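Supplementary Methods S3. Complex input for the adenosine-5-diphosphoribose-bound model.
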Amino acid sequence: MREDDAVQPARDAITAFIRSCENIVIFTGAGISTEAGVPDFRSPGSPWLVHKPVPFQEYMASGEARIEAWRRKFAMDDIYRHLGPGATHHFIAEGVAQGQVSAVVTQNIDNLHQRSGIPDHQIIELHGNGSYAHCLHCDRRHEIPEIRIHFERYGYPPVCDDCGGIVKSATISFGQKLPTEALRRAREAMIRADGIIVLGSSLVVRPAADLPILAAEAGARLLIVNREKTPLDSAADYVIRGDLPGVLPELWPLTDMNASSTSR
Ligand code: APR
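Predicted complex, serialized as structure tokens:
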């Protein structure tokens, strides 16, 4: 059987699901970035299993933990600094551009949805973004390159030059509260949607993993595409076990909604 024949049923199912929805929210995890070279968090061999994220309480408790956290961050940044959005990111961006995807709710911190051209206001980052830092006291933004220069010169990260507060990558660490506004926007988008497509997430981290269930309880249909089983599979209307982007249609399907506005 040709490889294409094996994935065609999956592509057809995804196309049919997309064509049956008007307002889709796409929920993404690290599995959409692996084909772009960005490692996910839990697959065997992931560098994240070596450079484990430092829990928030430890980060706040000691200078040594902050030094270790930044050392690990710079090591991960060096792994994927030169990488860009992959085919799955571009597929999602097409759905947004054609007006059928109202929001992308992501657990990813790699800034690749922004770099795929999706407008910021349609990206909801539950676990923050690793492409910049901020002061935990006054929330002033700090740029990673300047922090790295200070770190490499003095062996420790700078404090906020406005207020002297602790500066941290703008990602949400274990034990750190999720951004209230992002969670509110995500809940609102999920409840309004009539279709949720989960791409590349193990769906084991809450409260993020509760959101597709919230949408389903509000009447949305749920499609999960992931290489492995997830705890939400039994709640999904459709589960496609396969590799992204291979199981996705080549292009975002034309639907009645966007056929008039898109000429190909
Ligand atoms: N195609 C399909 N699925 C894939 C692919 C791929 N190319 N690559 C990886 N996967 C699947 C893995 O099998 C796994 O089930 O994607 C899932 C990624 O799961 P995780 O590594 O747990 O990532 P994620 O679900 O985003 O983690 C959620 O956990 O560590 C925290 O804050 C971190 O946001 C992260 C959160």
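The pocket of adenosine-5-diphosphoribose is lined by residues 29-31, 34-35, 40-43, 107, 127, 200-202, 205, 226-228, 243-244 (CB under 6 Å). The radius of gyration is 19 Å.
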